[in-house]
Amino acid sequence: MRIPLIEIAGPPRDRGRQYGEQAREQIERSIAWYREQFVATASLRWEDVTANARRWEPLVEAYLPDALEEMRGIAEGSGASYEEILALNGRGELSSGNPFLEEEECSSYSILPEASGDGHAYCGQNWDWRSAVLDTVVMVRVEQPGRPTIVMQVEAGQVGRQGANSAGIALNANGLGARFGNALGIPQPYIRRKILDAWDLNEALEAIFRSRQSLCTNLLLSHRDGFAIDLETTPGRHGWGYPKDGVLVHTNHFRYFVPKQIEGTYRLVSPDSLYRADRLERALARSRETATSVAMRALIREALSDHFGYPSSVCNHPNPSDPWYDQNETVASSIVDLTTGEYWIAHGNPCRNEYELLPWNLYDGAATPAAAAA
User: Fold this and answer.
1) Which of 132, 127, 138 is nearest to 21 (CA)?
2) pLDDT for 303-362, tens place per residue?
3) Residue 39, helix vs strand vs coil
4) In 115-202, which ranges are E strands?
5) Does 51 fall in a domain?
6) CATH at residue 186
7) Strand pairing partners for 152?
8) HSE on the CB side for 216, CA within 13 Å?
């Protein structure tokens, strides 16, 4: 199953139009599905959802203003309304009773050069989400003036999620299934896009620590020079951790701390997160035994295809006991070689879908900050 490839370039409004035109069909499917699901699971009319979406405009304007112009372009190119594109980028924060807040299960990893048999830096994840969005997932390559070129996997219409850039920075993310506080915050797609817009790790970390968010999310940052850090971010303080023996893994529970605001009531929304993290860590600990890049990718695929605890496994499959609107599975699986710039993606479960090498190398025509400024 080939994942749709979208290439956009130029100033924000122009690249937004290009995005909307190329992903029109996927955006239409995404809007139709969320329209139905908000009603079915939270009794929220789509008209009310889109009306509420404008509440984030002032925050986005102050934090990542180009995103608003890009979304206006996406709306123009796709035929959707601007408010609908705003809603697709804020679906996790649209309501305190949001049915899409706590169920995004993912398994992320980073492998430093000293831990890999070929001496390369790797990262990626199994992105687990509703089965129905499988046909709305697209890969987007963003060539933008003054910023690194980005390759990212998103739900069609979104301006940010997980991916990597031409500066050698990669981002993978996992939901943490917790929320506290009532303050309006920046939705995650904008925070993730600002990270991927960064030229260096300091700028990427500033994008996290200078944002005001409304929910808890895990962000795993990797760098081609052999550095990785994992951040459990919340509306309050953040926690962080580093690789152990060159391998860093995160799933969907707090591993470094539990925020004091919820420490007396914290319960795992996804208990399978506890064994998924251990299974992935143990499998990737064998990275040193490999000798080639082909062997490394085979090992990573094996780890991401793990079925312990099936269907709630690292390679996530729909649970027939869940209602039809709550069926989850791995919608995309990634292996990114930050040393060579190769980006491999499987559309759907890695156990039955081959990883295809994207036609875009991360470092093709890569600009430097000095060249971009000039």
Assistant:
1) 138
2) 999 999 999 999 999 999 988 778 899 999 999 999 999 999 999 999 999 999 999 999
3) helix
4) 122-130, 137-143, 150-155, 162-165, 169-175
5) no
6) 3.60.60.10
7) 140, 163
8) 28
Q: Which residues contact 297 (CB under 8 A, 6 or more apart)?
A: 335, 344, 355
d(CA 242, CA 224): 15
Per-residue tokens: 86: 């705003």
> Any idea which residue has 């925070």 for tokens?
191
Q: What are phi and psi of 250, to 5 degrees?
A: -145, 145
One-letter identity of residue 316: N
Over residues 245-290, the pLDDT tens digits come to 999 999 999 999 999 999 999 999 899 999 999 999 999 999 999 9
Query: What total of structural domains would you count in the chain?
Result: 1
Residue 69 lies in a domain: no
Share of residues in the chain with pLDDT > 90 (%): 81
For residue 221, the surrounding DSSP H or E stretch is strand 217-223
User: Any bridge partners for residue 139, and if so which?
Assistant: 5, 153
Q: Are strands 342-347 and 247-250 parallel, antiparallel or unpaired?
A: unpaired
